[in-house]
Amino acid sequence: MTETAPRPTLEAVAARAGVSRATVSRVVNGGDGVREPLVERVRAAVEELGYVPNQAARSLVTRRHDAIAVVVAEPETRVFADPFFALQLRGISKELTAHDNQLVLLLTEGRDDHARVARYLAGGHVDGALVFSLHLDDPLPGLIQRAGVPTVFGGRPGWSGDRRGVVYVDTDNRGGARDAVRHLIGLGRSRIAHIAGALDQTSAVDRLDGYRDVMVDADPQLIVEGDFTPAGGERAMRELLARCPDLDAVFAANDLTAAGALRVLRESGRRVPDDVAVVGFDDMLPVAEQTDPPLTTVRQDIEEMGRLMTRLLLRGLDRHAADQGVGAAPSSVVLPTTLVRRASA
After folding, report:
1. pTM to 2 decimals?
2. What's the rounded mean pLDDT across residues 142-146?
3. Judging by DSSP bridges, how do beta strands 249-252 and 277-282 pair with one another?
4. Which of 135, 166, 263, 287 has the most CB atoms within 10 Å of its CB?
């Protein structure tokens, strides 16, 4: 076993800087009341000795853990297979890293996982939580509220009950869906189908509503529920072709769904976009640029959503630490979308 050198202590830093231990503690923990020349001496000593603050001791002073829980209400098989989650987590991770905070990833698949996550959050291990991909019957919002953990949600809240004080970041799903369908109509398409996402999620509901806003008299047979996955897109596309073989366009609830639909259209001998035009939603480049043909889609800035969620949460935590919650609380944000035209429509 390799012997390790003893870790530098506060006392060692104080001795090197020629100041008291209390002064070092105030500087290290971000306290006020230390003159700038002393601050510089302490920082120089910290650098020279390679001192790393003890997080447990620091938390006693600052009442902060510098750790944020990221709760994704999906099983790990979905989270690690869907690039949407990778993009959102990348945005969150970049913002947390910029503020010297740690990311604690918590996934939920069943009721036992909900209870585990609730216990962890209530245990005081993190300063706050970022929660996304919630389903309408998900108990997490109530559990998190009871845990008393500051939280920012990804996506418009869809659960029943008191939503006062709820902060969220979302995309203009309904407006983006309207743009997608209007684009297809502008191409001369009239039998426009919609493969919805899982309708226990508000993003899927909003995109379906956007489709219906434009296709006011749409044949109900042209709407099939999917689940935001390629397999769901394949299944829904086969059902649509059996129901409505004369359809000439498809608006899919996300890019993965569209990718599955494109495979089935190709297998069935339908040319895209000549016979059937296809539009997706997300503009996830690993998917949208690799489909055959490349996918016309509605772009939402997924990584920026993650960054904004994180900024809002950290801003709320800083506000509370500074003035015990007095002043304007962070407000929810809805980001715009943009139609990105490629070869599929």
Report:
1. 0.80
2. 84
3. parallel
4. 287
